[in-house]
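Lab notebook: predicted structure, single chain.

Context: the supervisor wants predicted structures on file for every construct in the current expression panel, including those that have not yet been purified. This is the next one on the list. No modifications to the sequence; it matches the entry in the shared construct table.
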Amino acid sequence: MIDEALATGDRAFQRRSEERIRELRKEAGTVFLVSHNNKSIRDTCDRVLWLERGELRMDGPTEEVLKEYEKFTGK
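Prediction complete. Output recorded below exactly as produced.
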C-alpha cells in the first residue's frame, strides 16, 4: 500500500516513485495507491476505488471512475 507517495518531493522524486510503483505492479501484481492526484492515478492504475467519506462510491476501470469523480468534484 502506497499512501500519497507522489504528493511529496520534487519532480525527480515523483518520477522515480512512479517508476518504482510500475516495477512493484509487475512483481507483486497488485499495488494499492492512495492518491488525490488524477494524473498519477491515470498513469499508474487500471482499476480505481472511489471512497467518499469512508463509503465506496464507485469501483471500476480508471477512466470510468475518474470521469464520474471529475463530474462530481468539478475538476
